[in-house]
Write a structure and sequence with these properties.
elongated; 2 strands; single chain; 5 helices; 3% strand; mainly alpha; 135 residues; two-stranded antiparallel sheet
Length: 135
């Protein structure tokens, strides 16, 4: 491997896809073993397994690089997608349905800044006309 422009890593060998595909399942197996420590009800909570997932992504990156392949690449992404389907297929993002507050609250939230702005403008105008008192 050589360093190119701005330190960018260039491949001196062709990507050995078969070697990469042979080694990636070990990353998946390791991740699977780590995920057994997490209650399956908590699989959708990333904070419960973020370190395990970080180890998994580092492993896939390392194995891709060892096979002289860029990471991510379509084959590695396909493998990662398979792991996602295995562990996170039931994790759907819950869409928050936003609703307007009741009219009473909405009117209050609109009127308070409007009235405060009017009061401040009135105060500034009144004080500017009465500058002789302020001196």
């Amino acid at each position: 491997m050589t360093l190119g422009f701005a330190g960018a890593r260039q491949q001196s060998e062709l990507c050995n896809e078969s070697l990469m595909l042979e080694k990636l399942p070990a990353c998946g197996k390791s991740f699977e073993e780590m995920m057994k420590r997490v209650d399956s009800k908590k699989w959708c909570n990333l904070t419960e397994f973020i370190m395990y997932y970080d180890n998994f992504t580092q492993c896939t990156e390392r194995e891709a690089n060892n096979a002289s392949c860029f990471w991510p690449n379509p084959l590695a992404e396909g493998f990662i997608t398979g792991i996602h389907k295995q562990f996170f297929s039931n994790c759907t993002s819950e869409k928050v349905h936003w609703e307007d507050p009741p009219d009473e609250i909405l009117i209050t939230l609109i009127l308070i800044p409007v009235l405060l702005t009017c009061a401040m403008i009135t105060l500034v105008v009144w004080c500017s006309k009465r500058s002789d008192i302020l001196v």
